[in-house]
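ESCALATION

Customer reports they have been waiting on this structure for their group meeting. Please prioritize. Original submission:
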Amino acid sequence: MERDVIGYGYNADHARFLGFVPGATTALSWLGDVIAAGYNRHAGSFANYPAGCVAEEGVLSWFCERAGLPAGTAGGLFVSGGSMANLTALAAARDAVLGEGGWERGVAYVSEQTHSSVAKGLHVIGVPRDHVRVVPCDDAFRMDVAALERAVAADEAAGLRPFVAVATAGTTNTGSVDPLREVARVCRAHGLWMHVDGAFGASVLLTRHRGMLDGVELADSLSWDAHKWLFQTYSCGMVLVRDRAHLVSTYAAHPEYLRDLEEGGATNPWDLGPELTRPARGLKLWFTLQTMGSEGLAAAVEHGFDLARWAQDEAERTRDVEVVSPAQMAMVNFRFAPAGLSPEGCDALNAEVSRRMCEGGYAAVFTTELRGRRCLRICAIHPEATEADMRGVVRGLRAICDEVLAP
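Update from on-call: job pushed to the front of the queue and completed.
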């Protein structure tokens, strides 16, 4: 019975699980997680767990350096994932730009491809839905910076206070990267906080492809999930900030019952985010880095680029296939669009192909919607997946398509 409960569900750690970003995990992370959980340290303060907090702080400083954030002021916190990282940063942005007396005038800017967790976070911190502007994207699914600038100017003219623009480094649908340097220019010109949601794509900063994220070093905050493309077990997210003092300003509290744990001048993790009680989430990533090294992690990330290109190449060799979003990072989107089939019929066809592929168990390929069309989306990040896996999945999808279309 225990095996049925624990094992029942999608095997997201399989090389052909291509349905969404989190999936592949290294055994090193699993082992680090077991060790951290076994000791069950309270990692909210240095007094409770000095060695663990020092290790986490060292890892965070190293990732801040990879992102190009300024030494001395930059810092961050390990959190449960991208949703909490975005929320943590957005609250700091609100306080830094609006202050406590100006919340009702604040306006936030996201794109059509911004992750849904940002909308949740904005709602939680008190931003009304009619103060969230959804900026259109260009043909490559990147934020239209000219449209962003027009929206900001219009809100300023209306007496509102634009306070944060959220750019994405590796969108969930397509792996697209917003023009970060241009978004930063708009933010600087109008006094906005620039947050970058890099939950998935920030891992590219460890690789030879880091130029894709040009301008990320100008961000005020960055979310980065190690349990996505750094192969960690759940949960292992990071929020990094240009100036750690902003997190302290928003989250630090000093109740009398914690006074004995706040001596020595160190900034405790519980003063950098919403959680008081927190596990040492970063130890498994520290353990992985100590063992694999940054070059080993980088090679595993770079493999995802190859997997997506192989999938696209096979799709382009396959009849009736339309590539809707070409390979970017580890993502590629395509769909079957046989001649004579209506757009609605193509949507239904691709949904059925996905359903049968998942039901059959060979691979997990889910659908998404781009430009109003239902697409098959492949996210290939597993370091043990092969070119044969990618080509075999596309061929398998074609075979299922033939079955669905058969009289």
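Sent to customer with the following note: The domain at 42-279 is CATH 3.40.640.10 (Aspartate Aminotransferase; domain 2).
Escalation resolved.
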